[in-house]
């Protein structure tokens, strides 16, 4: 499947403010500095679909982006959901506290949600908030994929040990990806379609 169209649909600060799910949804979550927006842009092959910033923590609501896909014999539509980044200390305490119920409400209640991609920095591995989210998703039974991004920041000899450490930390073998070089993009795209139950 290839992306023939990608567009922004909506942003809301609570689940009730989002349009009802119309297509399979895959959510993306991660700390505020892991390059989530860049990774989604790389995945959908659009440079500016998701706004990126030099300042971490700019995503404050839940945003939905719709992809139109096709191959030689079929067409499909899926929605990618960009969840607010967590763990960014410069946000107010009240704002950071409000994100927990917002994200939990979405992950628990959203009937269209097929799976969650947790993004970690390949250099730092699974941090405390990532571990908590992994445990929570396992508890509520949401299918989960772990992506180790910024792979281009590691040398070839550093990659295998770092990915092995993340596997041990997360209990899930991660996909190594670089939004900068597109390494691992096609494998991740195939896994996202698998989560959404789309494709051959």
Can you characterise this structure?
The chain is of the alpha/beta class. The chain has one domain: Rossmann fold (3-Layer(aba) Sandwich). It contains five helices and seven strands, in the order ββαββαβαβαβα. The chain has a seven-stranded mixed β-sheet, with helices on both faces. A hairpin with a 4-residue loop joins β3 and β4. The radius of gyration is 16 Å and the shape is globular. The termini are close together. About 3% of the residues have low confidence.
Count of individual helical segments: 5
Q: Quote the beta fraction.
A: 25-35%
Q: Helix amount, in percent?
A: 25-40%
CATH names the topology as Rossmann fold
Mean pLDDT: 87
Name given to the CATH architecture: 3-Layer(aba) Sandwich
**Shape descriptor:** globular
Could you give the count of β-strands?
7
Can you say what the CATH homologous superfamily is? P-loop containing nucleotide triphosphate hydrolases
Produce the secondary structure layout.
Elements: E1 2-12, E2 25-30, H1 36-44, E3 62-70, E4 75-82, H2 93-109, E5 113-121, H3 128-140, E6 144-149, H4 156-170, E7 175-176, H5 185-195
Parallel strand pairs: 2-4, 2-5, 5-6, 6-7
Antiparallel strand pairs: 1-3, 3-4
